[in-house]
Amino acid sequence: MLINEGFRTIEAEDGEQAVTMFTAERPDIVFMDVMMSGIDGFEATRRIKEIAGLTFVPVIFLTALTEEQSLMRCIQAGGDDFLSKPFSFMVLKARILAMERVRDLQRIIAAKQQTLSALLEEEHEEQALAERVLSRAVMNRNVAMDRLERMQRPASVFNGDLVLTQHLPDGGLRLLVGDFTGHGLAAAIGALPVADAFHAMTRKGVNDARVLAEINHKLYQILPTDRFLAASLISISGDGEELRWWNGGMPSIWMRRADGLHELASHALPLGILPELPACESPRRVRLQHGDRLLLTTDGLLEAMNAEGEMFVNSGFAEILQTWAFNAPLLPALVKALDIHSAGVEQSDDICVVKSPWIPALHHSHFGSRIHSGNGWY
Fold it and tell me: N or C: which end of the chain has fewer CB within 10 A?
């Protein structure tokens, strides 16, 4: 019947031969009997589907079985349709035409998928190049980055979290850790004007309040109304005796001192929301003590989810923070706890952690120094 309709056919005597002939001939449609010597039609179909891979090759079972469970086994084995014997030629031809239509649609979809994959790969490469250019433009002016303990994990190609450092004219150092709204390119686009203002004004010795005001002014002008920069600004005097800090919408900064942990909580609005910063939200001052250390994070760390939907701030972070001993490492334990907590869960936001070690007695070089112990750098 099929030959008379112009189809070229090949026949196999059993399931094993069917698999062998399929591998060699790669037919467009397979008609499979259930009851055969050697391997049955179910197993032969499973093997054929495995060989075909992503290519859609319809398998139609020809069977005398009528039980619903047996017919279900045909589909579960990889069959795409079945014909119960006896059947007419018109029914057989209708099944063939239907499967050819499905096959052709699958090939069209596969071709479009291949084109889309190529376009996505090209876009990813372009984004990676743009990210490298942007990161270098933003980060290349930073100082003492190799002396800071930090961990940055972007949720996509572009990083919406920002870390900037620059020396002050008196030998001190200024640090900004920021978190733009969202993540990806839309979040990272404001990093360049922030970096320009930060570095230029810090090198000139402009005070913290004016630096913040200038960054706020720039962001207010260029960012949409639903975008802003949460940020923490830290300035350490050249004599290592004073810390000036400002926290606008960021998670609390944690200071580890000999007498315990001290919280430097957010006290100001993020940058870019208002045309001018309120005077009451000016930077604050703390007298430094020997061995003081700071921990700064973005909310991506605290809000990282585990498989149960629980945030890291409620499952692991507090314990790590409370066990942070004076003059002891922190980042390795923190990163390990985060990895365990978020195992198997896709990262939804950029993550940034910065730990700043310094000893005020070292004067001009205090911030750029790290102390080495048997447990590593801290």
Answer: N
Tell me, yes or no, whether 268 lies in a domain.
yes
> Rounded distance, CA 11 to CA 80, Å?
19
30: which residues sit within 8 A by CB, 6+ positions away?
Answer: 18, 22, 45, 48, 57, 58, 59, 60
pLDDT digits (tens, 9 = 90+) for 246-304: 999 999 999 999 999 999 999 999 999 999 999 889 999 999 988 899 999 999 999 99
Q: Phi first, then psi: give them for residue 233, nearest 5 degrees.
A: -115, 130
- CATH number of the domain where residue 81 is located: 3.40.50.2300
Query: What one-letter code names the amino acid at 197?
Result: A
Cross-strand bridge partners of residue 73:
none
- Residue found under tokens 């790969």: 121
Q: Are residues 171 and 92 in the same domain?
A: no
pLDDT at residue 219, as a whole number: 95
What 3-state class would DSSP assign to 6? coil
291: left (phi > 0), else alpha (psi -120 to 50), else beta? left
Of the candidates 187, 189, 163, the one whose C-alpha atom is nearest the C-alpha of residue 177 is 163
Residue 117 domain-assigned? no
